[in-house]
Amino acid sequence: MFLILSLTLPFLSLSRGGLSSDISVLDAVFALWRNDMRWLGSLSIALVALVPLTRLLLLVFVLTRLRFRMGVNHYMRVAMRWSERLEPWAMAEIFMIGVVVSLVKISTLANLSAGLAFWSLIGLIVATVLVSLFYCRDTVWRLLTTRSA
Hints:
Helices cover 70% and strands 9% of the residues. With 149 residues, the chain is mainly α. A three-stranded antiparallel sheet has the order 2-1-3. It is elongated and about 65 Å long. The mean pLDDT is 89.
């Protein structure tokens, strides 16, 4: 939910001299795409949205099946392995650090206000950090390797 909100709602509002503009994360990606920076736009959407979403969906798949004792299978092990491989590439928090640095620099030129998408992305980052803190990889792997398929 946080991810959908952070991609579609206004992320930032900028106003100066009576002119005002809102931009969402998807607007920024499309702007990069239109200005022949397709690789940067693609990389941005992948690292800010698609990789974190994929990682969380893989974890939900594995943990839900373990929680409801649906039986361990090969796909669960593959999903867990990919979840761990994607973790270093899920960079929503790095994106936010870059945004905050940019906001500090731009704030001297215009009035800025963070939109609902900004706070949604912060919520996503907090949720991701909490997931990483409160589940034990060793326990999950032990359950995946000791239970029969």
